[in-house]
Amino acid sequence: MMSIVPYDPFKRFASILREFEDFFSSVPVAFENLASQQHVKVTMDETDHQLTAKCHIPGIDKMEDITIEVNHNMMTITGSNNQSTEIIRQDSYQKQWFLGRFQRSIHLPCAVKSEGIMAVHEGETLTVIMPKEKRKLID
């Protein structure tokens, strides 16, 4: 006997959205530095029990500067970067500030449980592990 699985008419569009993200992620060279600080590259891995998102976030040193929200089938990563450099010489003083903020929303390929989500920040990589919800099959 076959199980009935709900039809998702938008499932095919997930791959199209990924293609658009890849296509429009290339930025002219003049804006390369700005884009590298605000664009978060994400790699998704899926197993039977969990989804793992590995995010490359350059310039963010502390987990406190990152917010992760998972609602329905959407994960949103928001972060801020506040840096300053100071150069003191005998006859001059120079101080520069960089204030940046980014946000990236990713459509998840399946439903995940809101409890049990773990995030680990090491270097420039943020790893988010999300347990998958069990599919409810209708007999």
Describe the protein's architecture and organization.
This protein is mainly β and 139 residues long. It has one domain: Sandwich (Immunoglobulin-like), CATH 2.60.40.790. Helix content is 14%, strand content 44%. The protein has 2 helices and 7 strands; from the N terminus they run ααβββββββ. It has helices at 13-24, 32-38, and strands spanning 41-46, 50-56, 66-71, 74-88, 93-107, 118-122, 125-131. The strands form 2 sheets. Strands 1-2-7-6 form a 4-stranded antiparallel β-sheet, with no helix packed on it. A hairpin with a 2-residue loop joins β6 (118-122) and β7. Residues 27-37 have low confidence and may be disordered.
Which sheet architecture does the biggest sheet show?
4 strands, antiparallel
Number of strands: 7
CATH fold name, please? Immunoglobulin-like
* Number of helical stretches of at least 4 residues: 2
* β-sheet strand percentage: 35-45%
Domain SHSP: 33-139
InterPro entries: A-crystallin/Hsp20_dom (IPR002068), HSP20-like_chaperone (IPR008978), Small_HSP (IPR031107)
Pfam families: HSP20 (PF00011)
Organism: Chungangia koreensis
Question: Topology, pairings included?
Answer:
Blueprint lengths: L12 H12 L7 H7 L2 E6 L3 E7 L9 E6 L2 E15 L4 E15 L10 E5 L2 E7 L8
Antiparallel strand pairs: 1-2, 2-7, 3-4, 4-5, 6-7
